[in-house]
Design brief:
392 residues, alpha+beta, 8 strands, flat
């Protein structure tokens, strides 16, 4: 019921404040009354107020509070340092930072970026709800057509991802007129745990997409999935929507980087920088997983072992000169695997040999050689040596 109510609110373009009140909502209203902070204006009210003015129709409306003369203005935008104890980054120093406000041009751009962040977050939330309510739930009801394990393998952990983003969207919407607190939404412990969910999703989504394509080969299942798509009035198929979570998480750094450019040197720069650093780390992890998936499925030739993701994160890839070989070798270093390959045409790599990380012994200085050479040895079989290699 809660999912449905929020979906209706998001689909209609109504602020989350229109959803039946929650404990956080009551607390937010009390804080507004006590601090005389800016009140959020719902989208529907904005439309009425901005009717006939295209330039303001999609802008963020900010009502400036009346600040007492004796009150430190920065305290109104930095009070989260006293109340939000779940922040991953220390925020106590923010009160001592520059109190420089962005200029008018930067403020207009900041409003536009924040508006885009929240608007696209609502669109993403609607997409997640459509996937779960429009595809997953109907498929779960027809167990004679779709095996329950099959359904779970398709939609993976989208339910906890959706639950995280419901709360995340609510927090963003609450703080849309307070840039400090809005950026701090990316720094909480809940956000850290929520964005970690994408690691698992990104690792498993190729298998999910492959399974959907297999289902579409069966006429009965294909018709069922097409009917779900028609009911949702989606132009794009289910497989396209299963890409949306990865696309969304890689969009955050772009938005925050744009925000950083317009807050540099102002009192908001520190918290925006921290938010950008945090979400960039998430994006880097996702991109590394995508890189390994691409290497395993499209580029690597002759490898007969487990999926490369089983060996951890790709730490390094580079050209090496290997003794006994005229051509350079290309080395991939994972958490628990070192793989030596031969570069081929069209961006492919021929597998040559590998060592598990827990079996590698290294001689840093090879006798009679330059300092740039080092020797790798399988200490479980000292007779079997990986040739001395020189980093190019």
């Amino acid at each position: 019921k809660q999912w449905y109510q929020r979906r209706v609110a998001i689909t209609a373009g109504i602020s989350e404040t229109a959803v039946p009140s929650s404990p956080r909502e009551g607390k937010r209203k009390r804080l507004q009354e006590e601090t005389n902070s800016p009140k959020l204006i719902s989208t529907s009210k904005q439309r009425k107020q901005s009717h006939g003015s295209k330039s303001n129709r999609h802008s963020i409306v900010i009502e400036s509070p009346q600040v007492p003369v004796s009150c430190d203005r920065t305290s109104l935008t930095s009070d989260y340092t006293r109340s939000d104890t779940s922040s991953l980054h220390s925020s106590s120093s923010l009160e001592c930072l520059s109190t420089v406000e962005p200029d008018e041009a930067s403020l207009n751009r900041i409003r536009h970026i924040v508006n885009e962040l929240i608007t696209t977050e609502k669109t993403y939330m609607k997409d997640l709800m459509d996937i779960l309510m429009g595809y997953k739930e109907p498929m779960e009801q027809y167990t004679d057509v779709f095996d329950p394990d099959m359904v779970e393998s398709i939609f993976l952990n989208l339910r906890p991802i959706g639950n995280f983003h419901l709360d995340f969207l609510e927090k963003l919407d609450e703080q849309q007129n307070n840039l400090d607190k809005l950026a701090n939404c990316f720094l909480t412990k809940d956000s850290e745990e929520g964005f970690k969910l994408y690691d698992e999703y990104c690792r498993k989504v190729p298998e999910s997409l492959e399974l959907v394509n297999e289902l579409l080969l069966d006429q009965t299942r294909k018709q069922f999935i097409v009917n779900c798509q028609m009911h949702l009035q989606h132009f794009f198929p289910l497989t396209e929507f299963l890409h949306r979570p990865i696309q969304r998480v890689l969009k955050y750094p772009l938005l925050l980087r744009d925000l950083q450019r317009h807050t540099n040197g102002t009192k908001y720069s520190s918290v925006v920088d921290n938010a950008l650093d945090t979400i960039t780390e998430v994006a880097v992890r996702i991109n590394k997983v995508k890189r390994v998936q691409e290497l395993y499925s499209k580029e690597l030739v002759g490898w007969q072992g487990d999926h490369l993701l089983e060996y951890g994160i790709l730490k390094l890839e580079d050209h090496f000169k290997v003794n006994g070989s005229k051509d350079n070798r290309y080395v991939f270093l994972f958490d628990s695997l070192l793989m030596i390959t031969k570069p081929l045409k069209e961006g492919k790599y021929q597998y040559k040999s590998h060592l598990l990380s827990n079996e590698i012994a290294m001689t840093e200085n090879v006798k009679g050689e330059m300092d740039s050479k080092f020797e790798l040895i399988n200490f479980n079989n000292k007779k079997k040596k990986v040739p001395t290699a020189t980093l190019r």
